[in-house]
Write a structure and sequence with these properties.
It holds the Pfam family BTB. Strands 1-3-2-4 form a four-stranded mixed sheet, with helices on one face. Helices cover 57% and strands 7% of the residues. The chain is of the alpha/beta class and 290 residues long. The radius of gyration is 28 Å and the shape is elongated. The model has no long low-confidence stretch (mean pLDDT 89). The longest helix is centred in the C-terminal third of the chain and has 30 residues.
Length: 290
């Protein structure tokens, strides 16, 4: 027996007083044309075109306006934003999946305020969109300004934590460059933490050589921990900032002269990591996938 059931009405976004009917997949939405025109240039142009062409499209369940290449759940997420009071902030208890859905569809259908809302939510500390997804959005020109930050995020994401789905999104060439870059950067970090720098201990400025050496030992041990930990490792640039600010354990044991000498000695080597990041970030942007 053939199933002849027609489209179902969306339980929340099929309003009795709606003025325009859309069919997305097999779900009907009856919503208010005025709200779409207010927020979307895409739908504003659509309605102007359909007024010119006529045909009664969108005025009944039998003749809806069909929205292709869009999931009903994503369209409902966009309507959630449209029908939610605009006083909501990006800190609203929205899920990552819903915010991502709103971002992509608001870009496609030109809802600038919805786009800004979703982008702010995904940029916030609560959702913290993973670097792989940020990279994909930037590469697709949905949020192009996320490109370089997302690449730096990829280079700092432990390679072993990337999933097969991540690999499919990145593609083999990007994955290869990311792996090569992380290997080079890890080599720099291991080289730096394997050998402690020498301190001058000037006689007229350093009055406790043993205390200075003890402080350096504590500092360097802590440095190895924070830059080699498997989850959320600190970059050398961040570590250098902590050292320069005196924010690492053991530095308070050192004389001012030895502390300044330490900073001057390690700065060029620590800044080499940033140069490596820049080199490989540029290499990724030049891949043919763009």
């Amino acid at each position: 027996m053939t199933d002849t059931a027609g489209p179902t009405h969306h339980p929340e976004y099929y309003f009795e007083d709606g003025s325009i009917i859309f069919l997305v997949e097999d779900v009907s939405f009856n919503i208010h044309q005025s709200k779409l025109v207010q927020h979307s240039e895409f739908f504003k142009d659509m309605f102007l075109s359909k007024e010119t062409g006529g045909g009664g499209e969108g005025q009944s369940d039998e003749h809806p306006i069909k929205i292709p290449d869009t999931l009903a759940v994503d369209f409902a997420n966009l309507l959630w934003w449209l029908y939610t009071p605009q006083i909501i902030s990006p800190d609203h208890q929205i899920t990552l999946a819903v915010a991502y859905s709103i971002l992509v569809l608001s870009h496609k259908y030109q809802f600038p305020l919805a786009f800004d809302f979703a982008a702010a939510a995904l940029n916030g500390p609560r959702l913290n969109l993973p670097a792989v997804q940020r990279f994909d959005l930037a590469r697709c020109r949905i949020v192009p300004q996320w490109l370089l930050p997302s690449i730096y995020g990829l280079l700092q994401t432990p390679f072993a934590s990337l999933t097969s789905a991540d690999a499919r999104v990145l593609g083999p060439e990007t994955l290869r460059v990311v792996g090569t870059a992380q290997g080079k950067i890890e080599g720099i970090c291991k080289g730096l933490t394997s050998f402690k720098p020498e301190l001058p201990h000037p006689h007229n400025l350093c009055f406790n050589k043993a205390a200075c050496m003890h402080g350096l030992h504590i500092c360097w041990a802590r440095l190895g921990v924070i830059i080699h930990r498997p989850e959320h490792p600190v970059t050398l640039s961040e570590a250098l900032q902590r050292i320069e600010a005196g924010g690492m354990p053991g530095l308070d044991c050192m004389s001012l002269a030895c502390f300044r000498s330490l900073v001057d000695t390690i700065r060029p080597a620590f800044e080499g990591e940033a140069e490596m990041y820049n080199f490989y970030a540029t290499a990724i942007t030049k891949l043919k996938v763009f």
